[in-house]
Every structure is written in C-alpha cells, then in structure tokens.
Design goal:
By secondary structure, the protein is of the alpha/beta class. It has 2 domains: 195 residues, 3-Layer(aba) Sandwich (Rossmann fold); 98 residues, DNA polymerase, domain 1. Helices cover 40% and strands 14% of the residues. The protein contains 14 helices and 7 strands. It has a 7-stranded mixed β-sheet, with helices on both faces. Helix 7 crosses helix 10 and helix 11 runs parallel beside helix 12.
Length: 326
C-alpha cells in the first residue's frame, strides 16, 4: 500500500506509490524457490517486485479484502499474469486457513503493508477521506459488514467516545461523541464524510498546525469498521506459525497503534519465557530474532509525503529445539 496517512488539502488524487519497496523485498531476502506471502496486495507494487526476485520455482500468495484490489490483480492492464502468483480475496488474518486450502503449510516470508492505499483514499465513494463529501463507508471489503455510518447510527455515546479516543488518540473524543448522538437524536444521523467533518470541526476546539480536525476521528472509525488492530494481532500470530526456520517477517506500519502492536509482538517472541510455576522446566524458547527498524529515506519522503510516518520492522524465525537438531 502507499500509506495509511490521511492527506488533506490536495486538489488532485495522489498517484499510487509503493512505500519502502526495495527495503521490504530486501528484508524478506527471498531465495529463488521461496514461498512468500504478501498479506496486503493493494495495487501490487510489492508483489510485482517480489516476483522479480523469485526464481521459476518460487511462489507468491497475496491477500486483500478490497474487491478493487482483487480486480486490479486479476483483470485489465494491471492484472498479474504469472503462474507463480495466486491472490485470495481474504484478510491476512485468515492466511493460515487459506494457505492450507492451497496445500501450503510453511512459508519463507510474510510481508504486511498496513493501512489504506492511495486509491482507497482518493476514491470519494469509499468514504475514507474528509477531502470529499461522499457516503461514510470506510470498509476495506465493501461486500460485507457495517460501514462507518452504520456504526455511528447504532453505537451509544460511550462506545463512540471510546473508539475515537482509543483508536484516534483524540482528546476531544467525548465532545465529538456527544455531537454525533445529539444529531442522531434530532433525526439527522451522520451519513456522509462532509457531515462528519463539519461536526468534528465544531467539536474540536484546537488542533495541531497543518492537521485537519477530522484526521484522528476518521482514522479511529476506519480502524473500528475494519477491526484493523484485531486482524493485525491475528495475522502476526498466523505468520509466526507459518514461517519456516530462517523465514522473514516484514511489517510496514503507518501509525503508532499499529507499530506498537508489531513492536511488542516481535519483542515478546524474541525472548525466552520461564514458567515460574515450574522452575526446573526448560524455558520456552524464543521464536523470533528482531533484525531492525527501517524508515523511508529523505528522498522517498520528498517524492511521496504519505511515506513520512512509515516504519518497517523485520524479524527472522528461529528454529525450534527439534528443528535445531536436524
């Protein structure tokens, strides 16, 4: 994907630019015959570069919930015509089940590029951006589930405030929630991005210079509607189970909530755990080795401002006790 950062003030849609393209593929370090998972196909920037790095015996399985991404991979001038490639219309949280159906139980690398792609942000009817007045949707998968307007129409004030505070880190979460519920009770529930943006602007008294007052609220609702943090935790656990010894995990995040989950997951799986109830038992072996954190170069940020908050974290799967004896 290109970024999960909400751009504001642009008059033209941004062209799709894949963030940390070479760095991510180098982090995966795929062998010629590797089996790699691209958990977020988007418009295929990372997938196409991974295919260039693989040999004729390699294999790439991509995932994406967005029907538009699936169409980009399978139809028209953007389709990927490569027998080594397969795409699943599914969340990366479900990769273990989907790969099992393809006869794959071990992979050599997993890449997750989190957040929203530029085409999603810049397509008004998707409802991700406050730059356009459009239906308040925000679903990654437009074929299922409640949209953001449905959530605001049904959740109580406490729940709305909790989501905006926890997922948007918005200190004016309660005034925003009160305004949403008051408008709903007046018979005019929030249904469009423009209505929500105007409501938030009235409720938020101060904001950081250069940031639209609605930025944090839109982020929070998108995370809620798509269960992004829960799916990230599930996807990381699935990746760990699937990775073969020496396999690589590479995750690109765009805001602190995502990065915190990734950082803590890698840290937790990178240390031995001693069961204090059984002190004589051997400690639970560490499963990962953290290989570092990579930020975009100054040149990439100048060329693509939406890359400015990206962080790539990389880890290597360690062999288990039995695997280490082989």
């Amino acid at each position: 994907m290109s970024a999960s950062v909400q751009a504001s003030g642009a008059s033209e849609p941004a062209r799709h630019v894949t963030v940390l393209l070479e760095e991510a593929v180098q982090a995966l370090a795929p062998a010629a015959d590797a089996v790699i998972v691209d958990g977020t196909f988007g418009r295929g920037g990372h997938s196409r570069r991974i295919l260039q790095a693989l040999g004729s015996q390699g294999r790439l399985v991509a995932f994406d919930k967005d029907p538009d991404a699936l169409a980009a991979a399978t139809a028209g001038d953007t389709r990927v015509l490569d027998p080594r490639f397969h795409i699943c219309h599914a969340s990366f949280a479900d990769m273990k089940t989907a790969l099992a159906a393809l006869g794959i139980t071990r992979v050599d690398g997993v890449l997750l590029d989190l957040g929203v792609s530029s085409p999603q942000i810049d397509t008004p009817q998707r409802g991700f951006s406050f730059r356009f007045d459009a239906p308040l949707d925000m679903r990654m998968d437009t074929t299922r589930g409640d949209n953001a307007a449905d959530f605001l129409a049904s959740a109580d004030e406490r729940r709305i405030a909790q989501v905006i505070r926890d997922y948007g880190e918005e200190r004016f979460a309660l005034p925003i929630a009160k305004a949403v519920v008051a408008r709903r009770e007046s018979g005019r529930p929030v249904r469009t991005t423009g209505e929500l943006s105007e409501l938030v602007a009235r409720a938020v008294k101060t904001r950081e210079p250069g940031q639209d007052p609605a930025t944090r609220t839109f982020q929070a609702l998108r995370i809620q509607v798509n269960a992004e943090l829960e799916e990230l935790e599930q996807g990381l656990a699935a990746a760990l189970d699937l990775l073969a010894p020496e396999g690589r995990l590479a995750v690109i995040s765009f805001h602190s909530l995502e990065d915190r989950i990734v950082k803590q997951f890698i840290a937790r799986e990178s240390r031995e755990v001693v069961d204090r109830r059984a002190l004589l038992a051997p400690p639970k072996a560490m499963k990962l080795e953290a290989l570092g954190r990579i930020r975009p170069s100054e040149g990439e940020v100048r060329a693509n401002p939406r890359a400015r908050s990206a962080i790539l974290r990389v880890a290597r799967r360690l062999p288990g006790p039995a695997e280490g004896l082989q």
